[in-house]
Amino acid sequence: MAIPQTLSAKPRVLIVGGGYVGLTTAQLLQKKVKAAGGIVTVVDPMPYMTYQPFLPEVVGGHIEARHAVVSHRRHLKDSEIITGKVTAVDHDGRTATVELSQGETVELPYQDIIMSAGATTKTFPIEGLAEHGIGLKTIEEALTLRNHVLERIEAASVMTDEKAKSRALTFTVVGGGFAGIETVAEMEDIIRAAVGANPRISQTDVRILMVEAMGRVMPEVTEDQAVGVVEHLRGRGIEVLLNTSLGSVVDGEMRLVNMKDKSEADRFESDTLVWTAGVAANVVAKNSGFPVDPRGRVTGTATLQIADEDGKVLQNAWTAGDISAIPDLSGGGLPDGTCVPNAQHASRQAKVLAKNLLAASYGQGQLSEYKHDSLGAVAGLGMFQGVGNPLKVKINGFPAWMAHRGYHALAIPTVERKIRVIGGWVNELVLGRDYTPVRDLENPYGQFQEAAGGVKKKEAAKG
Ligand SMILES: Cc1cc2nc3c(=O)[nH]c(=O)nc-3n(C[C@H](O)[C@H](O)[C@H](O)COP(=O)(O)OP(=O)(O)OC[C@H]3O[C@@H](n4cnc5c(N)ncnc54)[C@H](O)[C@@H]3O)c2cc1C
What we know:
Elements: E1 12-16, H1 20-35, E2 39-44, E3 48-50, H2 55-60, E4 69-71, H3 72-75, E5 79-90, E6 95-100, E7 105-109, E8 112-115, E9 119-121, H4 129-132, E10 133-134, H5 139-156, H6 162-168, E11 170-174, H7 178-196, E12 207-211, H8 223-235, E13 238-241, E14 244-250, E15 253-258, E16 264-269, E17 272-275, E18 279-281, H9 284-287, E19 298-299, E20 305-307, E21 313-319, E22 324-325, H10 343-362, E23 378-380, E24 386-388, E25 395-396, H11 397-411, H12 415-431, H13 446-451, H14 457-462
Parallel strand pairs: 1-2, 1-8, 2-5, 8-21, 10-17, 11-12, 11-17, 12-13, 19-22
Antiparallel strand pairs: 3-4, 5-6, 6-7, 9-18, 14-15, 15-16, 20-21, 23-24, 24-25
Bound molecules: flavin-adenine dinucleotide (FAD).
């Protein structure tokens, strides 16, 4: 298959996924590779990098959805941007199969490849989960969740059927890790604000549940802080159910199971099910033919080179971030000795990867190993609330919230995005909370079709 003339014929550094790792490595490599006569190509189904730590704040409405993503086109001017999905890799032949956004497939030759397609939401075979669950990995999910929650409140306020009203006002989040806790806290915050502004419903009509299968939440913070988080959330009226999992969700009826004795823990109806119970390496890891570990992650060395299980390095093949299993030389990390999947590692690995690729393939500098001691973690729990242990100092409440905002304002890539995000925060402090849902995003043509006599757009286009 010939490469389309619109794509570069120069020796290519192919970056599979333009998230934390992909965007950062592209930024660091693009000018140097260009100067050496090559091209950096970023392939991603999305035309932007999503700053995932801000997704809960998008749900809460503190950050405008567009501001939590970083445009590839705008910030990677010396790179080739391809909106598409890598579906397979032939590393011996140095080509990758790319499904372009309009469905066409091309075989893209490369000199070096960086596997950085991140992770997807981990799910389990739970009846009804696929139909009823909402994940929180993408900006589209965060925006949809926000609109859904606010729309349910508005709808409930005119319902006369008490059962339907209770179902609309019951919100369930499964998964008590960082993402789940931040999300349930932001949801509670915005729900209380929206309900408070609606005289037809009361706060006592609302039920919010956080369901966690383990005996504690947030493995990233200390045990006593995790206990403090649970107490804090319960103090805000959130029902935190530990050692509990989702058994099934059929027609909106959730069945919760006690993990200790497998008995039924609760059964209720809820229109909202948010699923944040962990992540799994992107499936392109397995489909690429590169060596993967039992968790499906591409195996790599501390130099961020892809290597087989005997540690034999594959030339011109690199990996980092959530898709990879990289040894954690600091001695922390997962029980198998690899780095935990988080942004702290992803962004720092990206810098070492870019330097090492220049050293190995362009003779610029020396290979070095990735080693990073964790800086701790801070979580935002809604307006003015937070928890964390940055640099091993335990903080809670307002200082933690400030630390969370300060850290992420510095960490989101590009000055332009920092200004937009901080500007939004200032606007909110001055102008107050925005709890307006944007309606009809799933059927934006509805009004026009009604006005046009019910003719569907596609049918009209066919003539
Ligand atoms: C809600 C939430 C909150 C979080 N909060 C924090 C936090 O506070 N602190 C922290 O350290 N970490 C946090 N994380 C984790 C952090 O965001 C990830 O660890 C980080 O994004 C990993 O970076 P990555 O580059 O490996 O993957 P990603 O940033 O996920 O990027 C992967 C990219 O690959 C693209 N892609 C997928 N499939 C393909 C394909 N087939 N071909 C080409 N491209 C593909 C995707 O579109 C995406 O752009 C959070 C995550 C979530 C979901």
